[in-house]
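Why does this matter for the project? Reviewers at the last site visit asked to see concrete outputs rather than summary tables. In response, this paragraph embeds two records directly. Each consists of the residue sequence and, immediately after it, the corresponding structure tokens. Nothing has been edited or filtered.
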Amino acid sequence: MRVLVVEDDAALARGLVAALRHGGYAADHEADGADAVQLALSEPYSLIVLDLGLPGLPGFEVLKAVRAAGSTVPVMILTARDAISDRVRGLDLGADDYLLKPFDLAEFEARVRALVRRGQAVPNPVLRCGALELDRAAGTVTLGGAPVALRRRELAVLTILMTRAGKPVPKERLSAEIFGFDEAVAPNALELYVARLRKKLQPDGPEIRTIRGLGYLLMPV
């Protein structure tokens, strides 16, 4: 679950990236509109948070370019421009949400969760696989009704695997969705998170299988 923050206010961008990472998302930041288009079309983002007043290429043009290329990634416009005409234009160009600055962080985080669920075609915030239950809104996991304590990255990996239960998820795709560009990542980091998950889900949770050449598969129960 990877989010691209397109914002030229460096302080605000740092705050948004920090909040997203705290919420279990991998987050990248880009301040230039033209560069943001290239990133949006080359990486597996679950959401784009888009400012309108950008250098290089205005936000509306970024949105137009992304949609013209056929991308369906959810886009949240985050701007101080409160004119109805701007809201209408943004939504007509293909934005999925329009949030005005200043905003409440809790509302921003709730909208992010809703848009990511919508983009994954899984509107229910609660994912289930046998006795395993993951509440994405609350960020909690239970197994047979008992809480399972997961670290942020472990929760991110489990969310992706549960969203695609029964289907192999390539290691490269999983890594791309949970690690940002500027994060220092050990070569075996993904394997470590999966190993920890397996241990915490034993003995009653679903099995995470390694499919050679394909990736990881969460077995539906």
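We now turn to the second protein, recorded in exactly the same manner.
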Amino acid sequence: MTADFLSQLTNDQVIAVVRAPEIPDPVALCAALRAGGIRWIEFTRTTPGLAAHLRKAVADDGHGIGAGTVMTGEQAEELIEAGAQYLVTPGCRPDVARVASAAGVPVVLGALTPTEVGTALDLGADAVKIFPAGAFGPGYLKDLAGPFPGLPIVASGGVTADNAAAFLAAGARAVCAGSKVVPPQVVAAGDWEEITRRARAFTEAVRGGAE
């Protein structure tokens, strides 16, 4: 998947980042997000039972299912075994990058400063997650493009329907939709219609603003 990862992500533009205390039905959650136009879903390790959720989601429709907040090589191995199609880290995690590379699984390494961006690229990141992007704004992505032309950026943290299109216009390949689209309490309640409504509003704002 590594050869097509970036092109597919660039085409779809949005990753839903699910950070909830409970996910009653991961398959239904993914279906609700896809109904709203979001095809990439990142389940995070802050949710209990992540490996089990991944297995269910991947068995139903594996496209775009990844694991986030991956901190160690051991965690990376467990989540790849559970079916994660890509891994996301909150910072530069060499052991995670090593395991992902060995398994042929794409990895998105977190970074903020130019030094961290350079480290992420040296570690073989398929894309670099700039976090918290919302605190620095779209202009920061343009600044990074100076020393890092063509940098494959995923903007995360503080990205909303109001500013997502601006991050994409500034050079992000994709943006992360967090609690505004998948509020923990709405996910835990299994209100899939509300999730679809939020996902659709986000994707319409992003793609409408990018036209």
